[in-house]
Amino acid sequence: MADTVLVHPNRDKAESKATKAVVVLLLITSAALILVVTIGGWSQLQGAQIVSFVYALIYLGMAFVVSRWNRGVLPVAAALALLFAVIAAVAGPAWFDRDKPGFDDPTLDPSILGLLTLILVPVQLLLVALAMRGFQQQWNVEVEVTHDEADRYGSGDVGSGRVQPA
Length: 166
Fold this sequence. Notes:
This protein is mostly helical and 166 residues long. It has helices at residues 14-40, 49-67, 74-97, 110-136, 147-152, and strands spanning 4-7, 143-146, 158-163.
């Protein structure tokens, strides 16, 4: 009897590959924007610096996990993105309010920080939509096939270990 291997047919689809790439890109972009706003407005943020750094680290960790085809973190990423979209929508106008005489200036211009904060809102909403789309694509589905059948799946994501037939 021939040895069998595990393949993940849903990972071979162009839509799945594109979704994964965009979700990873959005997570990295979100982390970068959060860090720029945090560092640029460091002197004016009142104790929120640590939370921002933790958020950015979580996003980077999620980007790594998603890049390895793990869909389990996608609902968590969507939930965190929705929460951060609300926070950014509230915080954005506050940066524009600081762009007047009499306020201490942060490292970056307050209007730039406000713009970057408001840019985070659509980025987070896109992340919510695409993370949930990626979750629906069932990247975790495994099919046990022979080596000959695995070659028909193309490059495929073939499991590293061989599974003995039952």
